[in-house]
Design a protein that fits this description.
Elements: H1 2-9, H2 12-16, H3 24-28, H4 30-81, H5 84-94
């Protein structure tokens, strides 16, 4: 008789109506259920935060790659522009009255 009564009690309306919360098992383990729900909230929040930070890290790594490539190209361009032949050509184009030194530079000692 008791099994038939339990089978009859467990229905959608019984669960949605809150009758499940009056069960002896739920009442005895209320503290544990609340603790598990709180831990689930922390777990979900932590996972969401980590996902956002991982996306931000990936975005920043892509930006870092772009900046490194840009710095490399600017450095190569600067190296090319500071070659003596390029400097001489630039001086000629600008019409400056400069000549290449005929004597090599020397160091002064104290």
């Amino acid at each position: 008789m008791e099994n038939a009564k339990k089978k009859k009690r467990i229905s959608l309306m019984y669960i949605l109506g809150g009758g499940m919360l009056k069960e002896d098992f739920v009442i005895r383990h209320t503290k544990m259920i609340v603790l598990i729900v709180i831990l689930l909230f922390f777990y979900i929040s932590n996972r969401y935060t980590c996902t956002i930070k991982i996306r931000e890290i990936d975005y920043l790594q892509e930006q870092l790659k772009d900046v490194k490539f840009e710095a490399l190209s600017v450095s190569a361009q600067l190296t090319g522009n500071t070659r003596p032949s390029q400097v001489e050509e630039l001086v000629k184009r600008q019409g400056l009255n400069l000549e290449k030194a005929k004597t090599p530079p020397y160091k002064l000692r104290k």
